[in-house]
Specification:
The protein has about 475 residues and is an alpha+beta fold. About 15% of the residues lie in helices and about 30% in strands. The chain has a 6-stranded mixed β-sheet with strand order 16-17-19-24-21-22, with no helix packed on it. The chain has a 5-stranded antiparallel β-sheet with strand order 4-3-2-1-5.
């Protein structure tokens, strides 16, 4: 067979883009035609110079050189040959032009467009140049499909397939969309949120849910919230007395903007799928939207059991706290003992050293006491002769030279030391205020009062001249 260079062009514009092709209009004033090989004079027939056998059964060579002759494919009176420009009316056979270049609307044969070049909504196919459009096959789960491929746009969330023939089991939708629909299996005592805001969700107008209560002696609380206006139906399926499955309507055409309902255990039999299964149908909405839905079975609170449990836990916590406090006390005592051992070891390991001190002679005050005269002496502040910091530099061992009591004499009695070295553990940091012994304060107040009384008595005694 001789190759046809113009085969496959179904529109006049595509046909004329090939310089070896021309368009033969059928003459029906609706744009129908066919693309053929030819030139400005008309369509041409191509044959091979090697084909001299007149037997039609012999194969026609597919190689040149070629010979051209006039063809009669466009010789009818109503037909027109177009080689450089297309006919003014291009309606693809689905309409006619009332005015040049304008197709009458609406187009016929389930087509649409300025030139009736596309299938109407709900139909698919290739209507160009007389092509047909077929109705979308979606098994009742959708009305629209791709106008070229016929792949359906399912209107119920969870139903997938080119013809809406299966459920999206990967996302937990189960059922039979050919016989009924697909349902999302809701677990009891969980709250689910469904967000239908993606671009691929724009065709959804419905979504279905399913729940099986598992606790036979607890009421079921149902709650649903929709972000946009939508309707809701709720049914439950159960086993009838005859043993067959029966579905009863509980709620119909309810607004699911915010809805709550309680199913009493006295009116329904819970426990397994054979007893009661709830089905929720949400429909008549337009994405984007989100839906929050839940089925819950929370048992009623037993106050006696609650208080018993609370008291037991409280007493157990108290006992544990007391045990931990005792352990902490023992640990603190252990730490203090360890710290004392370390300090004693540090004190014992201090190096020996020498300190040169200057001691003033204490005046003998035994005779001055007989004349009832007192001299106020300047209060001396002792200064340390050694300061040994401990580990951490928070405490230190301070050593002082102290004078032993002499009984008012200028020196200590024989056999008794006059001075001694005293050491004390002190803290390093901000100095604290000097604490005053209350007994010393009382004695000082008593002495001041005694001196005042003595002055008064001396003033009242007569003086001999």
């Amino acid at each position: 067979m001789v190759p046809d260079l113009c085969k496959g062009y179904d529109t006049c514009s595509n046909c004329l883009n090939n310089p070896a092709c021309g368009w033969c209009d059928e003459g029906n004033k609706n744009g129908l035609g066919k693309c053929h090989e030819g030139g400005a004079s008309g369509p041409l027939l191509r044959t091979s110079v090697h084909h001299k056998d007149k037997d039609t059964t012999s194969p026609v060579p597919r190689t040149g050189p070629w010979t051209w002759s006039n063809s009669s494919v466009c010789s009818a009176e109503e037909k027109e040959w177009h080689f450089t420009s297309c006919p003014s009316c291009q309606c693809n056979g689905h309409s006619v032009c009332s005015t040049p270049g304008v197709c009458q609307q609406p187009c016929e044969h389930n087509t649409q467009g300025d030139h009736c070049q596309r299938c109407s909504e709900g139909f698919f196919g290739h209507p160009v140049n007389g092509g047909e459009c077929s109705k979308c096959e979606c098994n009742g789960q959708g009305t629209l499909c791709d106008h070229r491929s016929g792949n359906c746009f399912c209107t119920t969330k969870g139903i997938t397939g080119d013809h809406c023939e299966k459920c999206d089991t990967q996302n937990h939708y189960f059922g039979d969309p050919i016989k009924e629909s697909c349902f999302y299996d809701l677990a009891i005592d969980y709250q689910f949120t469904f967000n239908l805001s993606k671009p691929e969700d724009k065709h959804y107008t419905a979504i279905n849910f399913k729940n099986v209560p598992t606790k036979p002696d607890v009421d079921v609380d149902f709650s649903i919230t929709c972000s946009v206006p939508a309707k809701m139906n709720l049914t439950y399926r159960h086993s009838s007395k005859e043993g067959s499955r029966k579905e009863d309507l509980v709620l119909t055409e309810k607004n699911c903007s915010m809805f709550k309902f309680r199913f009493s255990k006295g009116d329904y039999t819970f426990g397994n799928e054979e007893n009661t299964t709830f089905y929720v149908y949400v429909y008549d909405f337009q994405p984007p939207l989100w839906i929050i839905i839940s089925f819950s079975q929370h048992p009623k609170l037993d106050l006696l059991q609650f208080f018993i449990t609370f008291s037991t836990c409280f007493l157990a916590l108290l006992l544990i706290a007391a045990i931990l406090w005792k352990i902490k006390q023992k640990y603190d005592r252990y730490r203090r003992r360890q710290r004392l051992y370390v300090e004693m070891e540090q004190m014992a390991s201090r190096p020996f050293g020498q300190v040169l001190t200057e001691l003033e002679r204490i005046p003998d005050t035994s005779e001055s006491n007989q004349h009832h005269t007192r001299k106020r002496r300047k209060k001396l502040r002792p200064s340390p002769i050694a300061l040994e910091p401990c580990i951490g530099n928070r405490a230190a061992v301070l050593s002082l030279i102290v004078r032993m009591p002499t009984g008012g004499h200028s020196y200590a009695p024989p056999g008794i030391p006059g001075i001694a070295i005293a050491s004390s553990l002190v803290t390093l940091g901000n100095p604290r205020k000097v604490s005053v012994d209350p007994t010393q304060k009382v004695e000082a107040d008593t002495n001041s009062k005694t001196r005042k009384n003595r002055k008064v008595v001396a003033a009242n005694q007569p003086t001999d001249l």
